[in-house]
Amino acid sequence: MLIDKLLFSNTAPKLMKKSLDLMSSRQSVISSNIGNLDTPGYKANDIDFQGQLRDALGSKGQLKLQATNEKHFGPKSSNISSLTARPMEEEDAAKSNGNNVDVDKEMAKLAENQIVYNATIQLMLKRGSTVRAAITEQAQ
Amino acid sequence: MKDITLSSNLKALQGVGPSKGLKSPGETKGTDGPSFADTLAQSLDKVNTLQKEADVAIQDFVTGDTRNIHETMIAVGKADLAFRLTMQVRNKMVEAYQEVMRLQV
């Protein structure tokens, strides 16, 4: 559908949607880190969603391939939609009970994640409102 | 980023007004500046470019290539405003056309 194409299947909207998905997974990972602050032997996890998105786009090195058609070589937009959250253990030194959660760090990550999430939502809304303006022919 | 105002867009649209061609009502040469159609096409092109730039800004923001939210927001806001302005100009044009078509001769 056209609306789908405008709002969800070009690269930028697809990226935004995926990053929101990953950020919400990251939020719960961080929350569970904080919740397990005192659990013996617990290892903190984190999701590098930006790295994952960059990998999916193939923009890791200097040379970028642009795939503007499904038949092109290079990064495919289906790469983005098939991304799943990949939590990785953090490598901080463990305390005496084998737990390596750093509260300050987790709180900072929580705040950062929240800000970026809200900003991405705002960006999506803004893009949506442009399309809405085009449909209603009214620049309100 | 260059200028974040729409003044460049507005300047481009000023060619429409009666500034150049109608300065001296006696003469009727008036075809030295860019035509209205050219100006319009140029503005449309500009709007398209702005939207593409906004998409690139979004991509950079989401993949963490840039960490500043404001620049992304400004790029998207700029594209949005430019689009709305162009759309309003189109609306006025269609309105004027319909007005002329309604005239009884």
Question: Could you walk me through the main structural features you see in this protein, from its secondary elements to its overall organization?
Answer:
The complex is a heterodimer of chains A (140) and B (105). Helix content of chain A is 58%, strand content 4%. Chain A has 140 residues and is mostly helical. In chain A, strands 1-2 form a two-stranded antiparallel ribbon. Chain A is elongated and about 65 Å long. The two termini of chain A are 26 Å apart. Helix content of chain B is 65%, strand content 0%. In chain B, helix 2 packs antiparallel against helix 3.
Indicate the topology:
The complex is a heterodimer of chains A (140) and B (105).
Chain A (H helix, E strand, L loop, with lengths): L1 H8 L1 H25 L9 E3 L1 H9 L19 H5 L5 E3 L13 H34 L4
Antiparallel strand pairs in A: 1-2
Chain B lengths: L6 H7 L22 H27 L6 H34 L3
Helix pairs in contact in B: 2-3
